Amino acid sequence: MQNLQNEVKKVSFNNKTLILGFSYEFMSFSFFLKKKQQPLFDGLIDFHNHLLPGIDDGSISVNQSLEMLDLYSDLGIKKVISSPHIYKYLYPNTKETIQASFAKLDKASKTHEVELLGFAAEYLVDEFFMRAVAAQEKQLCCFGKHILIEIPFFDQLKRLNEVLFSLQNQGYFPILAHPERYAALETTEAVENLKHKGAKMQLNALSLVGYYGAEVQKKASLWLKKGLFDLIGTDAHNPYQLNKLRDLHLSKKELLAWKKICAEQTALIAP
Ligand SMILES: [Fe+2]
After folding, report:
1. Rounded distance from Cα 218 to ligand 1 centre (Å)
2. Boundaries of domain holding 27
3. Is the pLDDT of residue 197 over 90?
């Protein structure tokens, strides 16, 4: 079908054939919409999301969190670990604020299919986090000693490099959330360099849908095919984003890499 479409484009020398080309593209687009949804998330344990109500820029209420749990279930995700932001200036969460929100949702979600396995956090690597790590404060982990971190989207990598070293010295396994979204990470070499320094890379599934733009989508697809990602997360903040994940359709190569990551992720969290 793709070949035919290209042929039509190649012979488009006047208005008449140009119109034919557009008609064909429209037919092709209709065909795409009828593609069967791939069961990409079946059995995946999502440990990067903002599902807990009222404590960051994620879910705004218990009801919205419950709606998100139902959407998780529709996607095939039956177990989640929540990871609200800890971002001193905007979301100054602590273990206590997260625990309280978790308890509220846990109580309300008993009749829902999706199981809340626990809570952790997504730490912004800023001066406060650096200080907490230097003081060897106990950090919230998603599972085992795996800790989820992010950097400001337009930040350089100096702080990140430092903290990777300190965290590992204290026995943590740092996971960098959505590397494909950072301006400072443009090349595969830059990602490989961070991996050599001990960071695991977590793909944000929404990047592959084009949710953050074409550039991010391109990096996500390329790095997925090159085997640079270790883990996958939804980073879901609301029902809209979970619904967007239904649009995700992977090529053969992407699918192969995706399945490998999912299997390794499940084995790592729930061996
Ligand atoms: Fe996040």
Report:
1. 20
2. 2-32
3. yes
